[in-house]
Design a protein that fits this description.
CATH superfamily of the largest domain: tricorn interacting facor f3 domain
Structural class: alpha+beta
Largest sheet: 8 strands, mixed
Strand order of the largest sheet: 7-6-10-4-3-13-16-15
Mean pLDDT: 93
Low-confidence stretches: 4-33
Shape: globular
Number of helices: 11
Strand content: 25-35%
Helix content: 25-40%
């Protein structure tokens, strides 16, 4: 994610572990045997948002089949969730905000209750789910998503002409039931029916359209598993352009709700997507997914977002290549390698911001080392910028500007400290070893030390965990 651009001053094991922590006290309180059916925890174990994700389940895929009325902003449909029980479950939860009419588990109607202030859909099947078994859960629903909020977020972005589901760290529960945490990636297949003459854009590849008398169903599918908040759809009037660049299919879309000048400028920006990917590949290696693209909305989200394979943007004009660089860098850092917990967010935002600096350096602008130096000298030592420990910024400041700026500074300072050749080996090794999974700050620090052959404990303490400006020393990459 990035704000509107302005001048800048081990899955199953992890899930089972998080679930075990969440269930231990409940099991002890109930006085049941350890192998007796339990209620899956209403949270995966992330301290920032305790209700995010759910204990006891591992989702492999979502098949979302929705209908959306732009006129009255009503969404209805059903989602099929394929999941595995990680322990013997009496009940389990999905994160979902909309009004539900029916839930089935393996074709049999299940009991449903609302918990967590309406955020948790507690599902009790007819029979307990045995550990290690696979199940099909179907949830049917109809509601107006704009009526709902969670964790202080009102995330439904819609007008009578357009809708786009884009937000972070939460978005899925407004339009499909999910195990809503980065630790549980799954394949997402999306069908959305809208009135004839309107387009739907989503992740991955367009698999087909079914045109009815008054409405059309658009079918999109992304082949690679993704974090739930990275799944999206947009519906409205869009101009679509597509092609191939160096063998990689690309598809971009721009809202016709923009003025002619804004529309044309946005399309020029979106069409930079394939060349930006090619440029990033020179530093980071192969692009991690099978398709790429982007979409510009006429709505005003106030930020861009790295939706997997197809980031979403506000209208910013043709000149903000750096914004496209940021969101496409996230395809490696944030999408392919997701955070293990939200406290690790600097691994997303700091890395994407650093790649903006690198892009400028590679295209005739300031070097990343000069940008680091400008930040260090221009931001006063008493500024709040230095007081935030970006290695664990807290839920209230998870997208603070320091996470972006100080995160990028950390990487360039690391580059200064270990040398250019070792630095890029660190990043390439990180990408290779974490590919398709999750990563924590501690894991990245271990990779950096191992690949560089240096003790970087003090370096990372100074940059990530000390609430003050790092000392201007060679050890900190500043001299």
């Amino acid at each position: 994610m990035t704000t509107r651009p302005i001048p800048r001053p081990l899955l199953a094991v992890v899930l089972a572990g998080a679930m075990t922590v969440g269930l231990a006290s409940a099991t002890a309180t109930a006085g049941v045997r350890a192998d007796a059916p339990v209620d899956g925890a209403s949270g995966i174990g992330d301290p920032y948002w305790p209700l995010d994700g759910n204990g006891g389940i591992d989702v492999s895929s979502y098949a979302v089949d929705n209908r959306y009325s732009l006129e009255d902003r009503r969404l209805s449909g059903r989602t099929r969730v394929e999941l595995t029980a990680l322990t013997e479950l009496r009940s389990f939860s999905l994160d979902f905000l909309l009004r539900v009419s029916k839930v089935t588990v393996d074709g049999a109607k299940a009991d449903v209750a609302r918990t967590g202030g309406g955020h948790e859909l507690r599902i009790t099947p007819k029979r307990p789910l045995a550990a290690g078994t696979e199940h099909t859960v179907v949830v049917s629903y109809a509601d107006r998503p704009g009526r709902h909020s969670y964790a202080g977020e009102d995330n439904w972005l819609a007008s009578r002409r357009e809708v786009v589901t884009m937000n972070e760290p939460h978005m899925a529960p407004w339009w499909f039931p999910a195990n809503d945490h980065p630790l549980d990636k799954a394949v997402v297949d999306v069908k959305v029916r809208v009135p004839n003459g309107r387009e739907v854009i989503s992740n991955g590849e367009l698999k087909g359209r079914k045109v009815g008398r008054t409405s059309t169903s658009w079918h999109w599918r992304a082949d690679e598993p993704m974090v739930p908040y990275l799944a999206f759809f947009a519906a409205g009037d869009f101009t679509i352009a597509k092609g191939r660049h160096r063998g990689l299919p690309w598809l971009v879309a721009v809202s016709k709700g923009l003025s002619d000048a804004e529309h044309d400028a946005s399309m020029r920006l979106m069409k930079k997507t394939p060349e930006v990917v090619a440029g990033l590949e020179e530093d980071l290696g192969d692009y991690p997914f099978s398709v790429v693209g982007g979409i510009t909305t006429s709505l005003d989200p106030g930020f861009a977002l790295e939706n997997q394979t197809r980031p979403t943007y506000p209208s910013v004009g043709a000149g903000y290549t750096s914004l496209v660089v940021h969101e496409l860098a996230h395809q490696w850092f944030g999408d392919d390698i997701a955070v293990q917990h939200w406290r690790d967010i600097w691994l997303n935002e700091g890395f994407a911001t650093f790649m903006e600096w690198r892009w400028t350096e590679n295209h005739g602008g300031r070097s990343a080392a000069a940008t680091l130096r400008d930040y260090y000298t221009d931001v006063d030592g008493s500024s709040d910028f230095w007081k935030l420990t970006i290695g664990d910024p807290g839920a209230e400041r998870v997208f603070d500007g320091a996470v972006y700026g100080r995160g990028a500074m950390t990487l360039q300072a690391l580059r200064n400290r270990v040398g250019d050749e070792a630095f890029w080996r660190v990043l390439r090794t990180w990408i290779s070893e974490q590919r398709g999974g999750n990563g924590s700050s501690a894991e990245f620090e271990e990779v950096a030390a191992r690949v560089s052959g240096q003790d970087l404990t003090g370096f990372f303490d100074a940059w990530l965990r000390t609430p003050s400006r790092p000392a201007e020393t060679a050890d900190n990459g500043l001299a």
